[in-house]
């Protein structure tokens, strides 16, 4: 069955009340996509470092099925935005939800006049970003944690 995801899922800005549900989302993705210690890093990010952060909800259940953010670096030689902390509920992966959330953020970034987007991900998810048009810049073994390598990618707008 093919779904129209714009009708099935709604993207909105993160609210503090979402934090507990988002912590459960990352827990569901440990150890497949995140190392256990990253749960605390994510909680700290939500408290101190998030700039623009979005959640995507299933309209029929009102459940948050994904989330992802953007951080901005205007003081760089070329102002850039960084895609951050993408997490999709395991039961909803591979259904286009991550793509919808990524495209929403790319459009949000374009509206700010930024011409470069960077994403720092792992070997487990880099192909998702590659399919969306990001190019691999560099890799670093065991960057996030043992067995979780850095794959830094960029997209010029």
UniProtKB/TrEMBL annotation:
Alphabetical list of Pfam families matching this protein: Acetyltransf_7
Example GO molecular function: acyltransferase activity, transferring groups other than amino-acyl groups
UniProt keyword Nucleotide-binding, yes or no: no
Membrane recorded as keyword: no
Residues of the N-acetyltransferase domain: 9-157
Record-linked CDD domains: NAT_SF (cd04301)
Protein name: Acetyltransferase
InterPro entries membership: Acyl_CoA_acyltransferase, GNAT_dom
Keywords: Transferase
